[in-house]
Amino acid sequence: MRPSVPARIGSWIIALLVGLVYGVAGTVAHAYAIGWFPLGLILAVIGSGALLVAVRLLTSDRWATLATGVGMMVSTLVFSGSGPGGSVVVPESELGVVWTIAVPILVALAVAWPDRIPRME
Questions:
Q1: Is residue 63 a contact partner of residue 71, using CB atoms and an 8 Å limit?
Q2: Which of 6, 58, 65, 66 lies 20 to 30 Å from 114, alpha-carbon distance?
């Protein structure tokens, strides 16, 4: 049985908001490194990928996963630009480029992943 249209739209809105929060957290944390080890970037990519996979598996809805990914991409885009005072959260560095490219790739993989195939018994 499929959920009603208002319930689906509500889940998409919640997914978008959760994606915005995760996108902001990843965007802020991606630049953290311990010496040469990019700990923030690795944790941001793992956390974002885990969120997308969880939304996809728990809702079985590509649209909810896409809404989550759009929230992540929008927050990354907003924080990548210059602020009113000229500050930039995502500098044009190797870590910033990897984070900016990793988010859309993760979203595309999670949305395009095939549905689960039922087992034959």
A1: no
A2: 6
Instruction: Fill in the DSSP letter of residue 36.
Output: T
Phi/psi at 37 (5° precision): -90, 115
- Indicate the SS3 state at residue 37: strand
Query: Which residues share a beta bridge with 37?
Result: 34
Looking at beta carbons, which pairs linking 82-90 to residues 24 or more positions away fall under 8 Å? 89/27, 89/28, 90/27, 90/30, 90/31
Q: Hey, what are 112's tokens? A: 């395009």
Nearest to 44 by CA among 89, 4, 112, 102: 102
From first to last of the 121 residues of the chain, give the pLDDT tens digit: 677 889 889 999 999 999 999 999 999 999 899 999 999 999 999 999 999 999 999 988 899 999 999 999 999 999 887 778 877 777 788 998 999 999 999 999 999 988 776 666 6
- Please say whether the beta carbons of 100 and 23 come within 8 A: no
